[in-house]
Amino acid sequence: MNEPMATFASSNDRQRPAVFAALRSVQVLTLLLLVIAGLGPLYWTIKGAVSPPPELLSNPLRLWPAEPEPGNFASAFTELGVGRYLSNTMQIVFGSWAVQLFVALTAGFAFSVLKPRIGRYVYGAILATMFVPYTVSLVSLFLTVLHVPFLGVNLLDTYWAIWLPAGANAFNVLLATRFFDALPRELFDAAKVDGASTWQLLTRIVLPMSRPVIAVISLLAVMHSWKEFIWPLVVITDPARQPISVALVNLADQAPLDELIAAMAMALAPPVLVFLVLQRYVVAGLGFSGVKG
Amino acid sequence: MTTALATRPETPAAVPEPPVRRRRAAGVRRELVGVLFLLPALVIFGLFSWWPILRGLLISFQQTNLVDPATWVGLENFRALTEDPLVGTAVQNTLLFVGLGLLIGFPAPLILAAVMSTIRRGAGVYRVLVYLPVVIPPVVAILLWKWFYDPGSGLFNTLLGQIGLGPYPWLQSSDTAMLSLVLESTWAGMGGAVLIYLAAMTGIPAELYEAAETDGASMWKRIWHIMLPQLRPVIGLLLLLQLLSTVQVFTEPYIFTQGGPDNSTVTVLLLIFRYAFQDGEYGQAAALSVLLAIVLAVLSAIYLRLTRSWSTS
């Protein structure tokens, strides 16, 4: 693993001065580009958040304001309601995560370990939904949430309208099933001989071995529901209950520019910080989950 | 998933036949327990996936206004679509977004990944930097770029003005609005593709490069004859993934331009959204959704076929 990966540029190439110089300058140029594209917008957000609006208009290229206004964060948090919107987002993220994990793990356990006879048909029907991205059932899903069949309840303006549909994620079920399939069968048989119930088999044997897949599903679920925009826009119409993503679009038309940018900074800070802390796992998760965009 | 997890072969339950009578009751019980554990998935997928898909198909042949019971109108909704000139515009705009996205956004991550693969020290820094835009929530990213695109005091025009270019209208002209959307979404989405390409590049056996070098192949020849052919399955997959996601573009036109100027950024999904949630034309929205679904299903089918052939090869 410590060995550098094989590439088109071999060690011999690198010893030739012309190739070395060309390669090095392309690498440095790329780094410069990535710093501008990756860190630039983050820096500009923070700078914009503490700049007085007249200065943003008159001298947009200034690297740091003459008189920074760190108070913008506090006023955006309280006056613009960013605190409440962030808390709404966290509730949405937490609930979506819990439902996704619960559905994926129970279904994966059933498909892979319990193998009921209808399992293969249900599995097929679940995988088939991957062909139909939820954006195309946006309208009918909305009508369903307005009046849930059998239950007859209206979930509009409640977080259940986001939590429950989030659970219908075929990719999670696929990940869990594939992971459980790869666990050693002998363990299950041994547990059964020892008289473990099905529930104990799940909670004592299977789940403790499933940390990697739980981590991947959790990461995908949290990152996805933090970014989610179109569905909350449709089902949460009460401004007081909206997540930060939807609220920001409304604020963009009303709030003063500096406070709006402060609000944007607070909306992007949590995912960026989580990514920086967990970056190794995020990158590994991408490899693990293959090519899911 | 496609590489590591897909390889386990299907093993048919090779349990020896149990003594029939005694085990039958236990078998029924096991079946019930299995179904019990499937219940959450059955309920959630039933209510929020299977039923809405079916219902979307039904609504596309119905007239419904949420108050009165829906009535069957046959192909009326589809006929109404042909009479709305915006449908053609939306299809054209969506194709333009997809096309520009491919032109600008498709080669870029491959080139970036190729450069990054040659880095021996500090590769982790590059990876974090390249993935940072992906973790910024789309709404924040778009509002940020909207501020950058401002014709008067925006970052882009002031910077370009310093070297004597512009000012450009960006989002405010129907000629450049779509391009502006594509630039932002390319920046926002590129990181994932770069990491996937990099992962695929680590899988190329070193012997291939060494053999080519011994045969006297130049660096460019090694890129052209070894790296690219080895990456072909991944290139195909990422192409389809990008097609799938750009055909469904909504957030960019919704926040940047609301479909303007002069309807130059009205996309198919934005039109579906308007039909349903601004005009209350649920039937018409469902009809257009069905057409979009057909396109996406065809693309997904190709995608699934490719993943399968890739993971078994």
Notes on the protein architecture:
Chain A: Keywords: Cell membrane, Membrane, Sugar transport, Transmembrane, Transmembrane helix, Transport. Chain A: It holds the Pfam family BPD_transp_1. Chain A: The chain crosses the membrane at residues 21-44, 92-114, 121-148, 160-180, 201-223, 260-278. Chain A: Residues 86-279 form the ABC transmembrane type-1 domain. The complex is a heterodimer of chains A (293) and B (313). Chain A is mainly α and 293 residues long. Chain A has helices at residues 11-15, 17-49, 53-58, 71-78, 82-114, 119-128, 138-146, 160-167, 170-181, 185-193, 198-206, 211-227, 230-235, 244-254, 257-288. Chain A is built from 15 helices and no strands. Chain A is flat. The model of chain A is unreliable at 288-293 (pLDDT under 50). Chain B is built from 13 helices and two strands. A two-stranded antiparallel ribbon of chain B has the order 1-2. Chains A and B meet through helix 2, helix 3, helix 5, helix 6 and helix 7 of A and helix 1, helix 4, helix 5, helix 6 and helix 7 of B.
